[in-house]
Amino acid sequence: MKARSSEGERPTTDSRMKKSELKRQVTAAIQACLDKKAEEIAILEMEKGAGAFTDYFVLCSGTNPKQVQAIADEVEHRLKAAGVRPTQVEGYKQAEWILVDYVDFVVHVFSEKARRFYDLERLWKTAKRREPSQLKPVARTKIMPKAKTTSRKRAAAASRRKAV
Predict the structure, then answer these.
(1) What share of the chain is helix, strand, coil (3-state, %, to 5)?
(2) Is residue 41 a contact partner of residue 150, using CB atoms and an 8 Å limit?
(3) What is the dihedral of CA 59, 63, 68, 73, to 10 degrees?
């Protein structure tokens, strides 16, 4: 993400909003994977100081090339509906390892064989493993001031009391 605050500073409203939006996008990608029956879904939150070029990796596997492509297609479709397009898609024709790059997060859709061979979880072992529930943005409740009663409402209430 681009809008990060300096060390020790409290995140700005803009960076919190972007982080919340990023979590929504990652959650949408995960849901797309689940809807296409992806297996072994893993979410890695990348360490800032470990040379990571993105905030999250979403990894999953398909059992055959058609399913691997279908998972990648569904991720693209879901996020496109939300107004987000990938900057890069690689490996689609081969369907062994499809990489869908959204800059702030990357979705990796593997065949089972390629997943075992490349073992990204081991390569990025310093990353924090996350569960989908940990990515749900926290809804901030805003305390609304008590609505002021208008003179018209007061008059209507008074006339109802007189009628009773």
Answers:
(1) 40, 20, 40
(2) no
(3) -100
Structural contact between residues 1 and 22, judged by C-beta atoms closer than 8 angstroms? yes
Tokens at 59, concatenated: 């990894």
What gap in Å lies between CA 121 and CA 44, rounded to an integer?
A: 8
For the chain, domains (ranges, CATH) are: 13-138 (3.30.460.10)
**Residue of 141, 28, 120 lying closest to 74 (CA atoms):** 28
For the chain, give the longest Cα–Cα distance. Answer: 82
> Tens of pLDDT along 99-157?
999 999 999 999 999 999 999 988 888 888 888 777 765 554 444 445 555 566 666 66
Spatial separation of the C-alpha atoms in residues 48 and 96, rounded to whole Å:
28
Q: Report how far residue 6's alpha carbon sits from residue 11's, in angstroms, rounded to the nearest whole number.
A: 8
pLDDT at position 27: 93
Q: Is 58 left (phi over 0), alpha (psi -120 to 50) or beta?
A: beta
DSSP state of 143: P
8 Å CB contact between 100 and 76: yes
